[in-house]
Write a structure and sequence with these properties.
Blueprint lengths: L21 H6 L1 H5 L4 H15 L6 E3 L2 H7 L4 H11 L4 E2 L4 E3 L1 H44 L2 E2 L6 H22 L9 H4 L10 H5 L16 H17 L3 H14 L4 H14 L4 H11 L13 E2 L1
Antiparallel strand pairs: 1-3, 2-3, 4-5
Length: 302
């Protein structure tokens, strides 16, 4: 006997539509014979449709009473057309009848179903990461006395935080005693404190609050080749070296604007782009350069 033609968990009962290979149908012997026996055509088509929503999809039970009912035939009518209606069906070692063409379409649909479920899961995880990052940045903005605007995008919030950090450093610099010889906070703490933006993204866990003196401006190139590289691998399925090569190409096209490239990669993830490489390259051409100093935004100070 033959192994089942579809996986035993192949369940397409939530698929309302069945793929129909029109040319193969119209050229099949069963369909051509049905021209002189319409009842045969009706029963054959009904069985094909019924097996789509059986489990495993593409199969039917090998039981004449059930098959007659599924084919909408009385016992005498089923006895008359049975052999022709089941022409091409294969009995497999699980005891069920499988139609090879319907089973082929069922396997394809079942694979797409798995891909769709995985894409939805990845989208949910990304959305959770973005919510966590937004919440963390909003908390830091409030610590500076800034009220984040409702519904602001993550890029806007990050720009507001950059501006707030610049204002803080400028204030500290201005207050340093010029004769003390001590370096300013902005000179001492110019290294990125990735905890406030990228640690939550990397681990999925809210990062601990860092001391104010340890918080500084983000290094966009560093973020691009850490966070962005992981995103490109996930979007394209390419290995590390190929993903790095793509990012290098996009950086050249964006005139070394790492923030612009990273934002575009994140947008491709958010949009769940079907062709991510083409989508990112088109978006980079259309997207204006990112201002690292984030001059334009609206804030309310408490």
């Amino acid at each position: 006997m033959t192994a089942p033609l579809t996986p035993k968990n192949c369940d397409l009962r939530d698929f309302e539509f069945m793929s129909l290979d029109v040319r193969r149908l119209l050229r099949s012997d069963t369909w051509l014979e049905a021209a002189s026996d319409p009842r045969l055509g009706h029963a054959s088509m009904t069985l094909w449709a019924e097996c789509w929503h059986q489990v495993p999809a593409g199969s039917l039970p090998d039981n004449d009473r059930v098959l007659a009912r599924l084919a909408m035939c009385d016992p005498a009518e089923w006895e008359r057309i049975r052999d022709r209606a089941l022409s091409g069906w294969i009995k497999c070692d699980d005891g069920r009848l499988y139609h090879p063409v319907v089973a082929e379409k069922a396997v394809q649909a079942f694979e797409r179903k798995g891909e769709f479920r995985e894409a939805n899961l990845n989208r949910s995880e990304r959305q959770k990461r973005w919510r966590d990052r937004s919440r963390d940045i909003c908390a830091q903005l409030r610590s500076f006395g800034i009220t984040p605007p409702g519904g602001a995008k993550l890029a806007t919030l990050e720009g507001m935080l950059e501006e707030a950090l610049r204002d803080r450093d400028a204030t500290v610099d201005a207050s340093v005693d010029a004769t003390s010889g001590r370096p300013s906070v902005s000179e001492t703490h110019r290294t990125v404190d990735s905890r406030y933006i990228s640690e939550a993204d990397a681990s999925g866990v809210a990062a601990p609050a860092s001391p104010a003196a340890d918080t500084a401006l983000p290094d966009w190139r560093d973020r691009l080749f850490r966070q962005g590289l992981a995103s490109v691998r996930q979007l394209t399925g390419k290995p590390d070296a190929a993903a790095r090569s793509l990012i290098g190409k996009w950086l050249r096209e964006a005139k070394d604007d790492a923030r612009k490239v990273l934002r575009t990669i994140e947008d491709a993830q958010e949009q769940n782009a079907a062709e991510p490489v083409a989508w990112i390259e088109a978006a980079l051409k259309a997207r204006p350069a990112q201002r690292s100093d984030s001059l334009a935004f609206t804030m309310g100070r408490g």
